[in-house]
Predict the structure.
Amino acid sequence: MVTGGPVVMVWAWIFVAILTLCVTLSMAEICSSYPTSGGLYYWSGILVPKKYKPLASWFTGWFNLIGQFAVTAAIDFGLALLVASVISVGLNLQWSPRPFHIVLINLGIVITHGLCNSMGPRLLSWLTNVSVWWQLLAPIIVSLALLIGMKPGHQTASFVFTKFENYTNWSNTGYVVLIGLLQAQYCLSGYDAAAHMTEETKKADVAGSWGMIGAVVVSAVSGWLFLVAFFFGIHDYEATVNSVTGFPMTQILLDNFSKELTIFFMCLILVACWFCGLASVTANSRMIYAFSRDHAMPGSRWWHKVHPRLSTPLYAVWLSCFIAFILCLPYLGNSTAYSAITSVTIAFA
């Protein structure tokens, strides 16, 4: 909201979605020929001349792996901030979370993701099925409720689709717009997770490819609706940016609904974010498993082990959780840590 405002976020979302879909279609075509948990690093080795195969695979693998660690950290830490925001609303904004509160909430979230990923494919499959529908319906329900039930004083269509806002110290409009693009790029990343799960998927050559394409298309449509609904629901832009709740989204809901309804809608979103983090840990652990299977990581002999009874790469799961938590610890000393993590996500993943 500070790097361009409505006009950048609404239209950049469409622009980034189109470009992302082009990349996804190309990756899906490759995935249909080479469905493997390794995903990108394996494909890069296949597609380059033989003498460059080790170099291409190694660099692609490490960039992808670092990006996936950052993705998991960013999702879970962002969820921790959202949870704290909802708690603050529940306590009538009389409680302001301190950095160690956020880190402790984040630790609890990371542990739940680790535990659910450690209990075998049957539970994980069930959770994944629930996750698909929850992440599809939750933002649509909240968006429609906001569009239908918003209170007088909300914004006009002219504001939502044309208003430019710059709360940065940069005077270069082009640079501010480019920074604003990162929000959409961050949200529309991670679609390669379907590729990392292909070794555990029926008809992997088809399902993996369509999984990636479907993720981008559905996210693009529901995400755009979500953005438009929330921009319409803003009453005071500056007050929303500097909301005491810590999250503009929470403030927008509070401005249009009762405290109870706001908490209900936020809980729908919280669960959707939790499912997103769960899937991130799953994909990250399969990437670690595959990369270690090719002896490309320190301690590879541990990370590619699969538990004989649970049929899950337990060590890889908990390595993913551990590093995701460690990446969030700098927040204890510097509140810009979350921005840094999401930047790594965009650059590497």
Remarks:
- The chain has one domain: 3-348.
- Residues 83 and 309 are 34 Å apart (CA to CA).
- DSSP finds 15 helices and two strands in the chain.
- The mean pLDDT is 90.
